[in-house]
Amino acid sequence: MQHHRPGGHRAAAHFRTAGLVVLAGHLLLVAWFTLRPLDVPWVSAANLHPLAGIRADLELGWRTGGRRIGGGLLLLAPLGVLLPLAGGRLQVSAWGSLVRTVAAGALISLGIELLQTGVPGQVVDVDSLLLNTVGVALAHVAVVPAVRARLRRGSGGAPLPADEPAQGPTPTIPRVGIAP
User: Fold this and answer.
1) Residue % of the chain over a pLDDT of 70
2) What is the 3-state secondary structure (H, E, C) of the chain?
């Protein structure tokens, strides 16, 4: 049984388009913030030991350390919402969506860290990769399931069955015998 909603495909296209535009804008802002050369008198060594930078930040005090850790969590956190929005799918597994989004966020963060190796004044930090990935996961878990559930319900309509895709069942083609 197919469930059609007036303007449903058009609304999904608008959500995808808006998601892609905001996603591109956010990634440009992140690239400007993380990949621009910094004019600094000295640069610390790269941190390749997981959690060492977080411990060092916490030793600076809760205020300074919390600000640095919070910045790492928040830098790519919008990707946790923007990536699924840009995908535009409502009928997906919650775990599958989380895994795809977190993996994409981790790969984007890894790409940023690798690009920073060639930028003067920027230092590679494995803890940034960890914090960015956790931020993406937290944002996704906090927002996406509730928004998808609300969009599935629409404006008071019944939810679509989970076992049937939004466009309906796949049509079957009858077999044709071999000609004599």
Assistant:
1) 83
2) CCCCCCCHHHHHHHHHHHHHHHHHHHHHHHHHHHHCCCCCCCCCCCECCCCHHHHHHHHCCHHHHHHHHHHHHHHCCCHHHHHHHHHCCCCCCHHHHHHHHHHHHHHHHHHHHHHHHHCCCCCCEHHHHHHHHHHHHHHHHHHHHHHHHHHHHCCCCCCCCCCCCCCCCCCCCCCCCCCC
